Amino acid sequence: MARVYNFSAGPSMLPLSVLEKARDQMLDYEGSGQSVCEMSHRSKVFDKIIKDAEALFREIMNIPDNYKVLFLQGGASTQFAAIPLNFMNKNRKADFIVTGVWGKKAFQEAQKYGAARKVASSEDKVYSYIPKLTRADFDPEADYVYYCMNNTIYGTKFPYIPDVGDIPLIADISSCFLSEPIDVTKFAMLYGGAQKNIAPAGLTVCIIREDMLGNARDITPTMLNYKTMADADSLYNTPPCFTIYMCKLVLEWIKEQGGLEAVKANNVKKAQLLYDYFDSSRMFKNIVNKEDRSLMNIPFVTGDEELDKKFIKESTEAGFINLKGHRTTGGMRASVYNAMPIEGVEKLIEFMKAFEAANS
Ligand SMILES: *Cc1c(COP(=O)(O)O)cnc(C)c1O
Questions:
Q1: Minimal-distance CA residue to ligand 1 atom 13
Q2: Which residue, judged by its Cα, is nearest atom 12 of ligand 1?
Q3: What fold does the segment set 259-358 form as a domain?
Q4: In a 10 Å sphere around its CB, with 0-12 CB exposed, 13-18 middle and 19+ buried, how is residue 132 labelled?
Q5: Are 359 and 283 spatial neighbours (Cβ–Cβ below 8 Å)?
Q6: Is the CB of 10 under 6 A from ligand 1?
Q7: In the chain, which segments carry CATH 3.90.1150.10?
Q8: I want to staple 220 with a disulfide (CB 3.0 to 4.6 A). Which of 93, 121, 216, 300 is the partner?
Q9: How far is the CA of 9 from the centre of ligand 1 (A)?
Q10: pTM of the model
Q11: If you classify domain 16-257 with CATH, what class do you get?
Q12: DSSP helix, strand, coil percent of the chain (3-state; round to 5)
């Protein structure tokens, strides 16, 4: 079996042992005589799967009891509308920090529902840094403050949690979910699509403080009202059953690794290897502000588009796939989520060194 090293930004690699377990359980899940793909979402067997997944989330992320953990569909992008519909409900104002395309999309969507204000943006320098903000930058009347914690496309990550005082803070953590510990208590809501670091595509996990629920706009579609889903323990309608099962396997794997501290240590090691190489290479460069570098998504360029193309072609042939940068930025990007083994990073660096030697 020849498996490639997949540096995709998402959907992305899953741990090999998780895939093997899913394969072994594919035809007969724990003696039930059925696959999880075929199972009723109202069955006892599935109920245990979704409850276990939630319990593991709570344990691994240290989520307090006054937060709901919801398993939803529609991707992170659907939440761009659901968040204002549910939470832009008192003064109909919200503050946005725009540090990339995903934050910008969320900001633009929210403008349909109220006075969304762009507090700061790093668009002036192609989103290559994170603006520094203090409590005074935010409108105390805002119903919430919104930001994207890790910018998947540009390879930046907030090195701090914005101090917003008593204003509810909401963050899109799609591409840094479960990559390191997060102090959940600082947030009114954390959410993300599963396909970056948690499971196959199809699942969106939302962690919401209970006091936020119950004030959605009247026009909010039932399916986008977080209270509907919270009251029904994510089983108002058919949830993405198989993806929730895969999520449970990944959470068990994270526990086996030693939890989020251990996962973080491994992620720091991988990212450091790559950044050290880019800082020393004469050919490849990472052009992000150093303090704001992401642990998960690492863009790089040669400065020569033809050479970038050659590198992408040759690296793909060598089994390092999906290194092409986002269509809006060009260049390359290595996404090194939890499941990327350190050997994958070491071998990529060896390959880059050889490419650099052969092409300079
Ligand atoms: C991928 C991504 C999204 C979009 O996710 P979908 O599930 O495809 O809607 C949003 N935000 C961030 C930070 C992402 O990385």
A1: 174
A2: 174
A3: Aspartate Aminotransferase, domain 1 (3.90.1150)
A4: exposed
A5: yes
A6: yes
A7: 259-358
A8: 216
A9: 10
A10: 0.98
A11: alpha beta
A12: 40, 15, 40
User: Position of tokens 């052969």?
Assistant: 358
Closest CA to ligand 1's atom 4:
76
Centre of ligand 1 from the C-alpha of residue 53, in Å: 21
Report pLDDT digits (tens) over 219-270. 999 999 999 999 999 999 999 999 999 999 999 999 999 999 999 999 999 9
Residue 275 sits at the vertex; the CA angle it makes with 322 and 98, to the nearest 5 degrees, is: 75
Asked if 127 and 326 touch (Cβ cutoff 8 Å), the reply is no
Amino acid making up residue 115: A
Rg of the chain over all Cα atoms, to the nearest angstrom: 21
Omega within 30 of 0 (cis) for the link into 11: yes
pLDDT(329) > 90: no
- Asked about 253 being catalytic, the answer comes back as no
Cβ 78 vs Cβ 224: under 8 Å: yes
Catalytic residue among 68, 95, 143, 172: 172
105 an active-site residue?
A: no
For residue 310, give the DSSP letter. Answer: H
Task: Write out the residue limits of the CATH 3.40.640.10 domain(s) in the chain.
Answer: 16-257
**Cα 214 vs. chain centroid, distance in angstroms?**
26
- Please report which helix (H) or strand (E) contains residue 5, including its range: strand 5-6
Give mean pLDDT, residues 310-315. 98
If one counts every other C-beta atom within 10 angstroms of the C-beta of residue 108, the result is 14
User: Which three-class secondary structure state does DSSP give residue 288?
Assistant: coil
Ramachandran assignment for 258, one of left (phi > 0), alpha (psi -120 to 50 degrees), beta (any other): left
Q: Annotated catalytic residue: which of 102, 253, 270, 324?
A: 102
Q: Residue 199 Cα, ligand 1 centroid: separation in angstroms?
A: 13
Name the H helices within 25-146: 44-61, 75-87, 101-110
Closest CA to 42 of 248, 250, 251, 233: 233
Which pLDDT tens digit goes with each residue over 92-125? 999 999 999 999 999 999 999 999 999 999 999 9
Burial 232-266 (b: 16+ CB within 10 A, else e): ebbeeeebbbbbbbbbbbbbbbbeeeebbeebbeb
